[in-house]
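My current task is to audit a protein record that another person submitted. What it holds is a sequence and that sequence's fold in token form. Thanks in advance; the entry in question is below.
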Amino acid sequence: MIPPMQLHSWIHHDNQADTKARSSRKSQVFRHVAAHRKLERQQRTWKLRASALDLYQTLQTPQERHVKAVEKHFTAVLDPLDTLSLPATDEIQSLIHFDQEYIIPALSGCLVCRVFPSAYLQDDVARYGYLARIAAIKARCSDPGLYNQALSLKAEAMRRLRERLPQLEESNRLPRAVLSLMFAESSCLNFEAADIHVQLLSAVNESYGLDLDDLISVLHQDVQRAAMTLTRTRFSMHDRSWASLEGELFHSRAPRKSLDSYQESSLEWIMIELRGALTALDILQRAESPQSSREAATFKCLHVMASLIDHYHDTTDQVEKYTALAAVYRIRRAAGMERVIICESTVFDSGRVIIPQLRELLAATYGDLPALRLWALYIGAKAGDDWFDQELGNHSKQMGFYDPEMLQGFLTGFERSGLGRWNWETV
């Protein structure tokens, strides 16, 4: 169970409560949640959200200067032609135009990203978090002065969430409102606050379930944040849930340390998961793939990346570490998640942390499996790092690959076919 103070501190998370009051509230919420689990689903849902409202009102006070700042952006009359019922101010129209002109086209190349702008903009709570996301991205890419507007919009989203929570209960709109704030915090590079949103959504999903589109959105954001900061993922689901979502693409076996030929070693597990993710991406790239298969493939890809990032932190074996990192980077590039360009600025660049760490691990593990090392060097070279280019050239010659086509053919087979450990050691 995630501590309630963590779940709800994202509403003006910079405020400080005294220790005794915090402890008392924590105990009260734990008892409250424990009691609700004995009730029927509908009753639990209503009371959880009612208790959340009480916490928002008790623990937090409005940031008046932010609320006042945002009001000036939302005072214009509505444009009768505006089907989204948004105030037709120049600031808001400019943000929506930037989203349609730059952000949406840039993210359209990502095979596992799913965001529907109209669903957020038509929601009178979620729209402010979504607009804050646009403002933050625009501030990073073209106009740094918009960062204050992003903060103001985010503050308005928090205020409205506190005020509208009872109404959100009936329409199941709470997850989307929290998602919009998660997007906003992530776009502001405030990953600590974004983590709190993710953990809250994880708890809601565990108890009540999330809409599939919302679930994909939070998983995608969690994996993006984990890869860009090289930290663990925060969203958790039981294997039974993953199996239900992934269908026949689900691979349930956990990594093992044994190198016995009849058991799956950790390295083999990593490569099997990589192949599963690449197979899932093949499904997503085929226009004729049915919707059910596309959804299963999306969950498979996101699950593999999350598992590999977490395995990188769990294992102490350097070869496993660099193999997991290389696999994550390989999947990210294939999925269109890496080095997304918006207005000539690069966003979602995990390579700036993954590639230096991959280089450090490879430099410390000479004498490892030749074919595995060759593949990892090739993945690193895709990032344009000179060290990888030089090492790849030297290592490929040592293995007898002098022809680029021959090298490419071997690497493709290494990724895609079920090569055993003995195949990894020799060509």
